[in-house]
Amino acid sequence: MRPRVAFFSFGSCEGCQLQVLSVEDVLPDLLAAVEIVNFREAIDDRRDDYDIAFVEGSVIRPEDVAELQKIRAHAKILVAIGACACLGGVNAMRNRRAVTELARDVYEGRQDGVFAALPDASPLSAVVQVNYEIRGCPIDRFEFLEAVRSLLAGTVPYTPPYAVCVECTLRGTPCLLERGVPCLGSVARAGCNAPCPAYGAPCEACRGCHDVPNFEALGEAFFRHGMTRTLAAEKLQLFNNYREVREAWEKAVPSSSAT
Amino acid sequence: MGEGRAVVVRHVTRIEGHGNIVVDLEGDRIKRCDLEIVEAPRFFEVLLKDRPYDEAPRISCRICGICSVGHATASVLAVEAALGITPGPGLRRLRRLNMAGEWLQSHILHVCFLVAPDAFGVPSIVPMVGSHPDVVKRALRLKRLANDICCTVSGRHVMPISYHAGWMGHWPERGELRALEERLVAAEEDLDALVELFAGLAWPTVERRAEHLASLEEGGAYPMMGGPLHSTSGVVTAPENYRDALHEYLVDHSAAKHVRGAEGPIRVGALARYTLAHDRLHARAKDAAARLKLRPDSANPFDFVAAQVVESVQAHQEALEMVAALLADGAPEEAARPTRPHGGRGVGMVEVPRGTLVHDYTIGSDGRIRSANCVIPTSQNLASIEEDMRAFLPSLVRRPSPEIAHGLEMLVRAYDPCVSCSVH
Questions:
Q1: Considering chain A, what percentage of its residues have pLDDT values greater than 70?
Q2: Per-domain residue ranges of chain A
């Protein structure tokens, strides 16, 4: 029997699910290998008898907690997909501001009903056990396919343990940091094939940090290239600002008051 | 007094994001008819606060997975307006090419993957892989081409990388552009078949007049890269005065703000653009509109689907033109510099697949964003969707509840709502 697969989303842009739909060349093969029983963005079926749940997005609202726990109870394997689900991602940038401030700026101060939000936007792992993670903002469609292959074969999906700098070097991209661009490649987890520096934007560590990041050295490198050490902390806030993710770098790099 | 009946669809399928249809009937009388928007607020306007302006397109493109190129575009235009940066002609062409790619991607996803299953009486495109393999393969080919246009220009089709105010972080190689040109020429057959397919499909009719709005470019091009906001009521509004034409307000059942125009609920998007600018279409797109029998004065929201098919042809033609222009004169340009480096307020307004998108930033003299406001096309359509549901209900009301639900779902889907984008 084909494994039954479901897709769910919490606070997110649903871009990772779109990446799943972007495997055009092999979509028919994928559909032959697994049975999709719940994928609101693309199909009408909504069954709860799934083996594998791919979950996108952050836990943001009070009701998200119970909803995620229900998915966890149904799924044999729960896979977090994308920066929002794995790290908190951009959603967690707001975590050092009070919800009252958010509500004032966006909803005329209302925090009731559909306007309610938890004090922190958090990754799925803050609420339930996550079996595997597919990192990135957005996830890479080929990495998603590799993860599906691994899960079908009963093995563990692979995530490189090393820095994005390795991939820039391999594809021959000149170092942005050396040109004074605030790039986080040296602490960021690889696996994306470093498209951002190649297309003229610094790495912002959307896949989180690798296994042995040296944040102090990152701050020093920023300083050596004409930037402040606090800028390193500010850049890490973009995708890595959820409190348990943040703890790792907060002690090593001085942080300014700006969120 | 008739019998009470509730029709509820929790989480409408085949749309982006989470919306519920909630209808209460008493006999034939409609007591309640809401499209609840129950998506998590992510507070993007607050996320942008205090961040350096160069990050703005990369942060704000995360608002939406489907129209991330549109958000990046509106974002750089807002920054450029605030800082007095005038993008060069090559840069403008690259951005237009990328937008054309995103229009094609988004429209094909909607009409073929999300909407077409309704016409074939199936719950998704999955059964069509077996029953209509040619339709599916064609849609996948067109979507791949559209995605590859965006990959070529901005490194990725979801979350474009290379966007900066005044410059582009990457210029495509001539070889890459030639390869795109070849594939675009080859795709003409697929687009022709797409028009043929949708010309043969029938949709319900709901007639309700509403104000249609689109930002029309100076110079006569079909609306895409923004310009003054035109209304079917005859009013023209400068982008920076968008608040005169688009009034945002809160309703209890929606985490997305609603927006009304001067006369009440409004429509934006493919149908509104077609209403206001059908005479600006390429000849091939005009021909497609004729084959689809799409009337410029259509008041039927189900015609959004046909209008998106027409615009798919239009986007394809735009992409061909931009690639040709870039091949003729596509040398990388120097970065355009700010003439107002101390900042100020800037509004970026563009036509994304679902309608008029506004990013409004105030940038401080330290180069950081002081405040931001984003007005999303789906927000602008929400009040009209509910009005159209009310207009559609009388013809459905005698039917069994599942059929009422299905009809209303089809109506909501026709608008191609982008719900998480609307909440942002």
A1: 98
A2: 4-153, 164-250
Specify the pTM: 0.97
Instruction: Kindly determine whether residue B170 and residue A200, on different chains, have CB atoms separated by under 8 Å.
Output: yes
DSSP state at residue B295: -
Question: Are the Cβ atoms of A198 and B65 closer than 8 angstroms?
Answer: no
Residue ranges making up the domain that contains B103: 44-423
Residue B21 lies in a domain: no
Complex-level ipTM beyond the 0.95 threshold: yes
Looking at residue B2, its pLDDT comes to 76
Report the pLDDT averaged over residues A125-148.
96
**What is the rounded distance in angstroms from the CA atom of residue A75 to the CA atom of residue A47?**
12
A259 pLDDT above the threshold of 50: no
Alpha carbons within 13 A on the beta-carbon side of B148: 20
Nearest CA in chain B to A46: B13
pLDDT at residue number B1 = 56
Q: Is B318 on the interface with A (CB under 8 A)?
A: no
Of B123, B158, B162, the CB nearest to A44: B123
Q: Is B55 helix (H, G, I), strand (E, B) or coil?
A: helix
Q: Which residues, other chains included, contact B277 with Cβ-Cβ below 8 Å and sequence gap of 6+?
A: B214, B216, B222, B223
The answer, for A223 touching chain B at a CB cutoff of 8 Å, is: no
Q: What is the pLDDT of residue A2?
A: 92
- Dist CA A168 CA B255 (whole Å): 41
- Indicate if the pLDDT at residue A122 is higher than 60: yes
* The pLDDT of residue B357: 98
CA angle at B182 for the pair B177 and B185, rounded to the nearest 5°: 120
- CATH superfamily of the domain spanning A4-153: NADH:ubiquinone oxidoreductase-like, 20kDa subunit (3.40.50.700)
Question: For position A27, what pLDDT does the model report?
Answer: 86
Q: Does A212 touch chain B (CB under 8 A)?
A: no
Question: Is residue B324 assigned to a domain?
Answer: yes
Contact A155, A112 (CB under 8 A): no
In a domain, B53, yes or no: yes
Sign of CA dihedral A18, A20, A25, A29: negative
Low-confidence residues in chain B, pLDDT < 50 = none
Residues 151-190 of A with CB under 8 A from B: none
Task: Identify the sign of the CA torsion A33, A39, A45, A51.
Answer: positive
Write the residue in A27, A42, A90 that is nearest to B62 by C-beta. Answer: A90
Q: Which residues in chain A touch residue B420, judged by CB atoms under 8 angstroms apart?
A: 9, 11-14
pLDDT at B331: 86
Strand B247-249 versus strand B258-261 pairing type: antiparallel
The pLDDT score that the predictor gives to residue A219 is 96
How many structural domains are present in chain B?
1
For residue B125, the domain's CATH number is 1.10.645.10
